[in-house]
TrEMBL record:
<feature type="transmembrane region" description="Helical">
    <location>
        <begin position="33"/>
        <end position="50"/>
    </location>
</feature>
<feature type="transmembrane region" description="Helical">
    <location>
        <begin position="84"/>
        <end position="102"/>
    </location>
</feature>
<keyword id="KW-1003">Cell membrane</keyword>
<keyword id="KW-0472">Membrane</keyword>
<dbReference type="InterPro" id="IPR000390">
    <property type="entry name" value="Small_drug/metabolite_transptr"/>
</dbReference>
<protein>
    <recommendedName>
        <fullName>Guanidinium exporter</fullName>
    </recommendedName>
</protein>
<feature type="transmembrane region" description="Helical">
    <location>
        <begin position="57"/>
        <end position="78"/>
    </location>
</feature>
<dbReference type="Pfam" id="PF00893">
    <property type="entry name" value="Multi_Drug_Res"/>
</dbReference>
<comment type="similarity">
    <text>Belongs to the drug/metabolite transporter (DMT) superfamily. Small multidrug resistance (SMR) (TC 2.A.7.1) family. Gdx/SugE subfamily.</text>
</comment>
<dbReference type="InterPro" id="IPR037185">
    <property type="entry name" value="EmrE-like"/>
</dbReference>
<keyword id="KW-1133">Transmembrane helix</keyword>
<keyword id="KW-0813">Transport</keyword>
<keyword id="KW-0812">Transmembrane</keyword>
<dbReference type="InterPro" id="IPR045324">
    <property type="entry name" value="Small_multidrug_res"/>
</dbReference>
Length: 105
């Protein structure tokens, strides 16, 4: 169950990062409320996952899901630049996540 909590927490991290961008510095109410709600839920689920997962594993995977997910959302929804170096960086992050998962007990 901890891995499910962690996965959902990571997805919520993507949601709050995107809604924070949409809030334009917290000047728009609805995206700001989505940001804070998703942030709180993401942290809560991360805390639940950390009950049984090692800190380094849980935190690394949570931030990795958020980083790669925000990268993809930025490209798909915000028209951010796609370059070989940015894609390579995302691949390295994903590789690190896989290795972290494989190394956890």
């Amino acid at each position: 169950m901890a891995w499910i909590y962690l996965l959902v927490a990571g997805v919520l991290e993507i949601v709050w990062a995107f809604s924070m961008k949409q809030s334009e510095g917290f000047s728009k109410l609805t995206p700001s409320l989505i940001t804070f709600t998703a942030m709180a839920a993401s942290f809560w689920l991360l805390a639940l996952a950390m009950r049984s997962l090692p800190l380094g594993t849980a935190y690394t995977i949570w931030t990795g899901i958020g980083a790669v997910g925000a990268f993809i959302v930025g490209i798909v929804f915000l028209g951010e630049q796609v370059t070989a170096m940015r894609i390579g960086a995302a691949v390295l992050i994903i590789s690190g996540l896989v290795l972290m998962k494989l190394s956890s007990t």
